[in-house]
Amino acid sequence: MSNTQTLDKTYIANTYARFPVELVSGKGSLLKGADGKDYIDMGSGIAVNGFGAADDLWLKAVTDQLGKLPHSSNLYYTAPDAKLAEMLCQRTGMKRVFFGNSGAEANECAIKVARKYSAEKKGPNCYTIVTLKNSFHGRTLATLSATGQDHYHELYQPLVPGFEHIAPGDMDALKAIDAKTPVAGIMIECVQGEGGVVPLEAGFVHALADYAQAQDIPLVVDEVQTGNGRSGQLYAYMTFGIRPDIVSTAKGLGGGLPIGACLMGEKVQDVLTPGDHGSTFGGNPVACAGGVSILSRIDDALLEGVRQRSAYIFDQLTGAPGIEAVSGLGLMIGVKTVRPAREVVMKCIENGVLYLTAKDRVRLLPALNIPMDLLEKAVAVLKEACR
Ligand SMILES: *Cc1c(COP(=O)(O)O)cnc(C)c1O
After folding, report:
1. Hey, how many other C-beta atoms are within 10 angstroms of the C-beta on 241?
2. Which one of 62, 87, 199, 369 has the largest count of C-beta atoms within 10 Å of its C-beta?
3. For 85-110, how does the pLDDT look when each residue is reduced to its tens digit (9 = 90+)?
4. Would you say the pTM of this structure is higher than 0.85?
């Protein structure tokens, strides 16, 4: 064990089952280990490094801003967050953006906006947020309560009240909850990431969106993992052709620095007023300058490249020996393997490729622009490890 690993195991809170790899540097989709080995990165820091590690244009954008003004607080105007918010609204048709520092914070904001809108519209009893079983929305108490997986809940009771979880596809359960006490918001991931990379059925997504609109319930789409080009569209909801009222996003938006954003559509654009919400670091100029660099390059050509790489991976892995199923959308792919997923991932590490897991699946979240030769090598290593 390296010195770093010993220090980490002694002093860092024991919350992560880390893989036995210490990383020291990286460029694009290649990372260097402390052992001197090169690794092909098929996880992008969990869908964060959309253009790979230390991407040149991103690096220039953040270092320029770092030298000018790294932080100012939200008591003053700064250009990078205003610019990034304008770009997000122009690309989505949403009207306003609140910036935080993580996916959980983006969802916290989404939940507050949905609750305030509904309390003002339908009264103080209207606070229930409906989410899906097998979902993942974050680790804060409210987003943990929103998360529809019991094993995350067990030792943190009592959870934040006012969350109900329905099975994907079960419109009757939603209507039954709404009939008891009016629903204040519905929150979904179009592809359940931590839940095993499971896309929702298009028919269900449309039924939910239609119901939410008819009943005047804000529809929140959690695009923390699916967003910012990962799905093959700018946001995964665009693949389904729906118009959410609130979109939360984070991970890939920053290109490597912490950022979260809650995008508010026409229905809820005026819900938040001064004092309702805030964040000391939210809209940080350096993170937002990086976001501007990233978002400006998620264009049609890049998205076409994402879809092509996705098709290549599905084609290579579907039906391959030792692989039972391949699911996902764009460059967010889950592979159900005959061998335990963690064992497959460990084998790939030995052969110089870093994969992730999600539940019982191997999870692929490569950089959106991963060079084809590296992708081919990485996929070959995975196939070999699954045999
Ligand atoms: C990762 C993730 C979150 C939480 O994001 P953090 O930045 O870790 O707080 C929320 N929702 C989804 C769908 C995620 O994948």
Report:
1. 10
2. 62
3. 999 999 999 999 999 999 999 999 99
4. yes
